[in-house]
Amino acid sequence: MTLGSARAELPAALDLLIIGGGVMGLSIAYNLARLEAGKPGKPQTIAVIERSYLVAGASGRNGGGLRMQWGDAGNVALMRESIEICRGLAQELDINLWFRQGGYLFLARTESGERRLHRNVAIHEQVGVPTRLLAAREALELIPELDVSEVRVAAFNPEDGVVFPWPFVWGYAAQAVARGVTIRTHTSVDGLEPLADGGFLARLSTGESVRAARVINATGAWSIGLNRALGIDLPNHPHRHEILSSEPLKPFLDPLVVDLETGLYFSQSTRGEIVTGITMPDPPGLPHADSVDLGSSLRFLANVSRALIRVLPVARHLKPLRQWSGPYDISPDGDAIVGPSPGHPNLIQVCGFTGHGFMMAPAVGQLIARWLSTGEGHPMLERWDPCRFRDGRVLRREDMIIG
Amino acid sequence: MTDRTFVCRCEDVTFTDLEHGLAAGLTTLEELKRYTGFGTGPCQGKECMAAVARELIRRALVEPEALVPFTSRPPIEPVSLGALATAPDPFADPLPSAPYMRSPGDDS
Questions:
Q1: Residues on A contacting B at a C-beta cutoff of 8 Å
Q2: pTM score, whole prediction
Q3: Between chains, do B89 and A4 touch, taking CB under 8 Å as contact?
Q4: Which of A241, A350, A351, B64 yields a CA-CA distance of 20 to 30 A from A317?
Q5: pLDDT at A282 over 80
Q6: How confident is the model at residue A394 (pLDDT cuts 50, 70, 90)?
């Protein structure tokens, strides 16, 4: 078994070059290689090029939560599919994903939060997702350690869950390589030159160059530089999100809990740690960053501690073991940016997942692979069209962006 | 008694786990940390990082002077969330010297 390397030999000409060895790029590579192997004729030649090592970016830095509890039917259905895929994925990828379906519990402490949860549950029922509203005392039965004195209502879907993100990415990588995908790490794509035939010549940091009929930009929060160099102006931008994990405790917390009003979330990993983060707006008065910043702050620790202790008072005795950060790739309307780029149809964006790319990757990898292999469409692909910003077709549909 | 050798006792990473990562082509401490989980437990690498580094050097996968440790994560000393909750947020908490913190009745 190999997981790709800095020395992996690249074919001189590719049908598909995927830039970015995160969960999105690797899920697409694995699913496409699998579909191509089952088709008559010569399969597409696929390579993934990663600037650093696999799992270096947001895919290795997120909290590992997967939920169907969204505020928009399209996202609810997509995540139902993603979680359904996860049920069999450990066997399929032959790796322990530490997938645990303990549910997500959303707590509403204000009237507007209460309205949101009522509205969501109605949408989930239409899609066929078993979310139910709980009174505060029922939430307390699920988690006796909660302080529910301020809780007006809660929403619980027992099928939501958590994974440990790292093996997830290694699993996709190993199975992609086993199906003929080349994974080259520690190599950056320094430039893309459009060719007369509609493809691209990718110039690499190693001095090599490689031709590709189609290119996928799956670099998420790092995608801006590559796009702007080609005159592609998209409105996604990086946002630093901080997170911590605590000293390990005996298992006591089944669901991942979200406090709607503060954007606090916390769960217990299969390794026993409490993993927690919170919505923290960028400091006021600063323009959006163009580049990724990965520092850790005391400001985060103060904010997450206050919010967590308010909902889970026993946490005041708990000590963080480690804190780190990762970039959200923020899309202004909350919808991802996926599909042919404006002016460059053979450069396909798979960006803008706004902090939720990891949980969507199992389903997104499959639907993009089907589209690349057979041209099959999907309603979300129409909605995620990168040209919508240029064409003025932007709709804000989703308000369940957490963290 | 087991004959397994543990490289990282916090996360139960064995020498065999490490060998799997190396056999898969991983050659840096950051990659091996993310493949095996070594160094992410209570000792935060204080026990295990040297053992893994030694193995990389022994197999000539890295020159000793080029070896880079993985990024250390705060906090250096364990501090409770209860104590951390008292740290001020400069964007949300008023500073003690700010005018609106003056006592009621002082309208000068």
A1: 1-6, 53-56, 60, 166, 170, 174, 246-248, 271, 283-284, 296, 298-299, 301-306, 308-309, 315-324
A2: 0.94
A3: no
A4: A241
A5: no
A6: confident
Yes or no, beta carbons of A1 and B23 under 8 Å apart: yes
Partners of B40 on chain A (C-beta within 8 Å) are 322
ipTM of model: 0.90
Task: Judge whether residue B104 has pLDDT over 80.
Answer: no
For position A2, what pLDDT does the model report? 86
Verify whether the Cβ–Cβ distance A56 to B30 is below 8 Å: yes
User: Looking at the partner chain, which of A5, A248, A302 has a beta carbon nearest the beta carbon of B85?
Assistant: A302
Question: Is A320–B82 a contact, with Cβ atoms under 8 angstroms apart?
Answer: no
Distance CA A154, CA A157 (A): 10
Q: Rounded mean pLDDT of chain A?
A: 96
- The DSSP letter of residue A1 is -
The CATH T-level fold of domain A13-60+166-234+333-391 is FAD/NAD(P)-binding domain (3.50.50)
Burial class (CB in 10 A: 0-12, 13-18, 19+), B10: buried
Judged by CB atoms closer than 8 Å, whether chains meet at A302 and B40 is answered as no
Superfamily (CATH H level) for A99-161+237-330: D-Amino Acid Oxidase, subunit A, domain 2 (3.30.9.10)
Q: Which residues contact B28 (CB under 8 A, 6 or more apart)?
A: A53, B62, B68
Would you list the domain boundaries of chain A? 13-60+166-234+333-391, 99-161+237-330
The structural domains of chain B, ordered by start, are 6-73 (1.10.10.1100)
